[in-house]
Amino acid sequence: MKFYLKLWIVIMITTTMLPDFLHAQAVPHLQKNGNAQQLIVDGKPYLILGGELHNSSSSNVEYLQPAWNQLKEMNLNTVLTALSWQLIEPEEGNFDFSLVDALLEDAREHDFKLIFLWFGSWKNGLSHYTPSWVKEDQDRFARVRLNSGKATETLSPLSMEARKADAKAFAALMAHLKKVDSKERTVIMMQAQNEVGVIGAARDHSQIANAAFNKQVPTDLIKGLKELKNELQPEMIEYWSKTKYKETGTWPEIFGENHYADEAFMAWNYARYINEVVAAGKAEYNIPMFVNAWIVQPEDTKPGDYPAGGPQSRVHDIWRVGAPDIDLQCPDIYLDNFPEIVNMYHHSWNPLFIPESFSGFEGAANTFYAIGKHAALGYSPFGIDDPVENPSESPLAKAYNVLDQLTPVITEAQAKGTISAFWLTTANNPQTVELGGYTIEASLPKNWRTGETTAEKGYGLVIWKGGDEFILAGSDLNVVFLPKSEGKKMAGFDTIYEGEYIDGKWKPGRLLNGDNIMINYNLSEQAAINRTGTAAKLETEPSVLQVKLYRFE
């Protein structure tokens, strides 16, 4: 009898706890899979094929209605949209989540996932989205002051009252999302604040900030930096090494009498502030959370020209120590050197996601490159709700269509490390990667008769399936495979099929040969360098090719 009683108790406990366990596993989260950190949504790896709305679009549900169908035609699966502290807590302690609920309803109706951008204390370095009761009480909620002593509209990250109020509001929001969305899981990530930092000065010169700047650098920061000594960013090494890695002293004494000390000071205080906000939110509903950076522009000469203290790559180490609850530090990229910038933000400890960037052809190429080269979680151009004529025909829509087809194949390859990518212009043509025992060369297409390049830009990704088989996807590239290993020196194409993936299964189209693979008829010249004069051609319209090679000599 005792045995059956114990068995009954075990069964009751197990069946009671099992739904909570399964629910915890189902909540969107980051997970290390092989070589990649991946976003897991509804139990499987998810690629964010996103778009960010204009800042004020989601403040009115009726205003946004015409945009939803356009976003669907553009093949988005995720919409990034702002949530304003001002609208959510118009009176202190009184929360209004009606807008949140309406956005969730519209997103579900159109089969979108959402990433909410918490415009709380800061948006683009300023504090325009704070409630009136915060804006009007400068005594309670301290402001950043410039070198001149002039006040700004920007909340100081050293204001403990502002920190507590923001954290309370964010926690209330996350508690509400857990209540209304943990089963549907429409919201897959949260952005905490937006492009924070001091504009117009290298640091805050308010009374509380000046006092803190001339005190000892917190021991927690020094301890954390020492633990990261083999992974420090070049800028941190440059400035800290000049003081012989001093461990005690004020900010100028540790980092030097320069603007880096100012920037490091602000980075620490922004990181500590936002980490407290994020931790309060995660305590209610623990989904991935990230911050985004207004990156340093070519014309910027000092901190303050860009938002000083934000999560720029030069202070990643400080943010990493100061904000352990933040999952990603993400770049907003509006410059042409996209490959260089993403390389600065993708680390073993920091998976890549681009929450703001270009649309158009550049956006399509950026998405392919980030996902293929850096195992990115995804990509999101800004202002995606701008009216577009024939949205389904836009370069981004066509690129997203291909990536959507390939998502299971891509995420598996990211985990295995069997994927790479190309982003070509006339300035960096051609490019090579090494994968699957081959040197794979991508070049812009040429007219084989005249030798003239017929496209100025091209992009694509390559996935090694194993053996001599590969998948190619992209636009305006010629791709050649050159054997690396010992043995037969030349590789020809056994088959090149164009086609598409439907419900995860490959449906082949034409078998390509003849003019569809020839790029150079000077076979004697080509043979001398172990080439065949053929290539797998990705045309202007984004497409997918299945390639099988054979070797000979």
Q: Strand order of the main beta sheet, please? A: 11-10-9-6-5-4-12
Estimate the helix proportion, in percent. Answer: 25-40%
Q: Name the quaternary structure.
A: single chain
* Beta-strand percentage range: 25-35%
CATH H level, superfamily name of the largest domain: Glycosidases
**What is the CA-CA span between the terminal residues?**
79 Å
CATH level 3 topology of the largest domain: TIM Barrel
Q: Return Rg in Å.
A: 26 Å
- Uncertain regions: pLDDT < 50 for 5+ in a row? 13-23
Instruction: Tell me the count of domains.
Output: 2
CATH architecture of the largest domain: Alpha-Beta Barrel
Which class best fits the helix and strand makeup? alpha/beta
Major beta-sheet overview: 7 strands, parallel
Total count of strands? 22
Kindly state the mean pLDDT as a whole number? Answer: 95
The CATH class of the largest domain is identified as: Alpha Beta
Shape: globular
List the total number of helices: 16
